[in-house]
Amino acid sequence: MSLTAKGDTLQVTGRLQTRTYKDKKEVTHKVTELQVDKWYLVGVSQTQGDYPVKEKTIIKDSDNLDKLSL
């Protein structure tokens, strides 16, 4: 089970870490990695694979719960 899908929008907090290393042939490589402390799912893509995502109803005011159609 995946928590996210391709196209989802994430908010990430953390830091960038840059390091160098040498491979077996003594070639030096430089990599930059994102060290994630926390991440949040901000938005869901409109499609998942070949199927459109069902529209979600968001209730912002608890007084309007009776207007929710199930």
Tell me what you see in this structure.
Keywords: DNA-binding. This is Single strand binding protein. One of its GO terms (molecular function) is single-stranded DNA binding. The chain is mostly beta strands. The radius of gyration is 21 Å and the shape is elongated. Strand 1 (9-22) and strand 2 form a beta hairpin. The chain has no helices and 4 strands. The protein has a two-stranded antiparallel ribbon with strand order 1-2. The protein has a two-stranded antiparallel sheet with strand order 3-4. It has strands spanning 9-22, 28-43, 47-48, 51-52. It has a domain at 9-53. Helix content is 0%, strand content 49%.
Tell me, what's the shape?
elongated
Q: What Rg, in angstroms, do the CA atoms define?
A: 21 Å
Percent helix, as a range, is: under 10%
Largest sheet: 2 strands, antiparallel
Q: How far is it from the N-terminal to the C-terminal residue, by CA?
A: 26 Å
Task: Report the count of strand segments.
Answer: 4
Total of DSSP H or I helical runs spanning 4+ residues: 0
- As residue ranges, the low-confidence spans are none
Residue fraction in strands? over 45%
Give the mean pLDDT. 78
Structural class: mainly beta
Annotation keywords:
single chain, mainly beta, two-stranded antiparallel ribbon, 4 strands, 49% strand, elongated
Short description:
Helix content is 0%, strand content 49%. With 70 residues, it is mainly beta.
